[in-house]
Amino acid sequence: MDRIIGAVIRFQGIVQGVGFRPLVYRRALSLDLKGNIRNTDRGVFIQVDGTETSIRQFYEGILHDPPVLAEIHESSIDIVRPYGYKEFVIKGSGEDGGGFTPVSPDIATCDSCLQEIIDPADRRYRYAFTNCTDCGPRFTIIQTIPYDRENTTMRVFPMCEQCSAEYGDPLNRRYHAQPNACGVCGPELRLLLSDGSEMQGDPIGETIDLLGQGLIVAVKGLGGYHLAVSPERGAWVQRLRERKRRPGKPFALMARDLETVKGYCVVSQLEEELLTSPARPIVLVQRSGEFETLPSEIAPDTDRLGIMLPYTPLHHLIMQEGHRLLIMTSANFSEEPLVYRDDDAGRNLSNIADAFLIHNRDIHRPCDDSVVSGVGNRVVPVRRSRGYVPKMIRAERSKRQVFAAGASEKNTFCVFKERKAFLSHHLGDLNNEKSLDAYTHGVTDFLSMFRIKPEAVACDLHPDYESTHYAEKAAAEWEVPLLRIQHHHAHISAVLGEHNVGERVIGVAYDGTGYGPDETVWGGEFLLADAAHYERVGHYATVPMPGGEKSIEEIDRMGASYLLAAYGSSKQIPTLPLTEHLGMRKLQLFEEMIDAGLNTPYTSSCGRLFDAVSAIMGLCYAPAYDAQGAILLEREAGGCDELVEPYPYRIHEGVLHFDDMIRSIVGDMVKGVEHKKIATRFHSTVILSSIDMCIRIREQSGISTVALGGGVFQNRIVLGHFPGGLEEKGFQVYVNSLLPPNDGGISYGQGITALALLEGGAL
Ligand code: ZN
Ligand code: ZN
Ligand code: FE
């Protein structure tokens, strides 16, 4: 018989509030181990007695088959002399030693809970706040750590006898499920009309009825309010567009189940996995012919549809009992933050919503729906928020503590500690007072939640970003160094950090706008970079932006600028829909502005090139939403299964010139070549000329690893062909897959650079 030994086992990572201790308890019982487990502020700590074989089996079993929501980042086992334990017990939480434990994101309703709410015999039948250790709210209800009911917004609901019994039973699925509740003791729903009067009867049933009449209902969810409307009639959808002042941007949909999604969309294996993952993000999927039976007002001009599955019991009940498909759009005005407080909802949404389905469980932190897409077998996070935040991302370069402020639009900030990074929820455009408030609040919250005392602050090089102003103040107040990181270097560092690449790489950063140290606006950049330093070795040829920032909103200006650069004079430009739309007077005005250097900064931006071509092709002159010009251009190219012969381009002394391409596109337009061909050839040119640039840079530098970053890598054609094209030429290629390649991930990159500078002894 095996000798009895003792062992000390530690697991670190997301191991608390995810059913770890009950699972360990059950496995210990089944292997006849004696000892105990407890939570500490550095993870879970287990002491056991048993045979060596069973202890090994126990340890390996947990390591390889942990609870669904757990993520083990580090673990250890040490053999010691037997303790002499008589039984296995779960102990209370240990002493707080000033460390921290990662907080779990909010998790979609699990299958077991779903079965209960649809089972008339179950005591949680139709209970909208059902949850267990495998699912339910976390990040959005946690007020402070450690994660105990007393520290959540559930503290005002004392558990009834039955719920308490579940909570205290290590063999129950709800053992220490902090938000545990039932219809007897937990939160309740109410349905209010916009005049404040309460609807009597069953709130869920009544809501379904109102939606069936085409009314707009504000639904309080997990991280904030949604505006729900039935997409059955175009007029209903249009009414929401008008009230929300959102003319063209596609609305997100919620579908009852995967079958419903497949009824309207073409869903790949990867997309199916994303749709049903515990984070339940909005997934951008290709709509199928069946979608044409729905009103075009849902998503007027894109082939991609943002769709998600229900992720709370309330959603499940509304969808199961009433609607197969609903528009579920974030409740806010264009760029303002998501509404999540009940009083704000009453005040701000009463002109939009006809009714409010509310409840009395407070949302402590707002958290927007996340958005992802799948390109081939790559996951592309577009917005990383609910379901993902605040999961840690590795930052292996350094243990030091850093706060990184982010950029301006699609803002997130990021905090670093002990080789881990915690990227904030989506905060949106900081040029908006309310978003800036949410930002300030969020920073304080994260620093205290993860107990971070920054040793340095990182921000963008742009002197006028609100995040830069905030960082300047914070660094002064905390008396720590402020590091200003160039925007595109930060994009590349985000890729290097995520993949833990330590070497120098060729960084290709393609996006809309970033501050360049040479007073031009960067955005089509080739860098030689490691996390600490970069050197600009190539870029797109610069063109003027007539009217500066205005040319981002009115992309016909960029079209004019590229035409003027390619033809030398307004008189040489052939007649195009764009020139007709502008008229000769406006075109000449732009020409004069450019000649006089009047409010016409120069840009090497890749995003602006896409805008210009979209305008030259007559697809879009003034985007109704972010990147509409590029989205329409991508749509024209269809799937673009294969790249075609590129248009002519020139590379001269590291600068990539597109004037030949612009003239060829104009030539094709005049000849009446079909749009699909032109758009496909344009995308092919961007990709193949970029690969050409990388090959030249490799010849000069000997470096054959490439990191691709920036918002342009959300483009399915670019992401679908550029990395593979580089690999065919023998490059090793890295792209973000946990972080958005857009500015939503840039704070992480700033922090990675700051850590590298701190470790390099630069400070
Ligand atoms: Zn559950
Ligand atoms: Zn109860
Ligand atoms: Fe950017």
Looking at this protein, list some descriptive labels.
763 residues, alpha/beta, binds zinc ion, 7-stranded mixed beta sheet, 11-stranded mixed beta sheet, DHBP synthase, Alpha-Beta Plaits, binds fe (iii) ion, Nucleotidyltransferase, domain 5
Distance between the termini: 60 Å
Q: How many whole angstroms does the radius of gyration measure?
A: 28 Å
Bound molecules: zinc ion, fe (iii) ion
In one word, what is the shape? globular
Number of helices: 23
What share of the residues lie within helices? Answer: 25-40%
In total, how many beta strands? 31
Q: How is the CATH topology of the domain at 189-372 named?
A: DHBP synthase
| Broad structural category | alpha/beta
Overall pLDDT: 94
Quickly name the level 1 CATH class of the domain at 189-372.
Answer: Alpha Beta
The main sheet comes to:
11 strands, mixed
Structure notes:
With 763 residues, the chain is α/β, with parallel strands linked by helices. Among the domains are: 4-90, Alpha-Beta Plaits (2-Layer Sandwich); 189-372, DHBP synthase (Alpha-Beta Complex), CATH 3.90.870; 385-497 and 743-759, 2-Layer Sandwich (Nucleotidyltransferase, domain 5). Helices cover 33% and strands 21% of the residues. The chain is built from 23 helices and 31 strands. Strands 6, 7, 8, 9, 10, 11, 12, 13, 14, 15 and 16 form an 11-stranded mixed sheet that branches. The protein is globular and about 90 Å long. The N and C termini lie far apart (60 Å). The mean pLDDT is 94. One zinc ion binds next to helix 4.
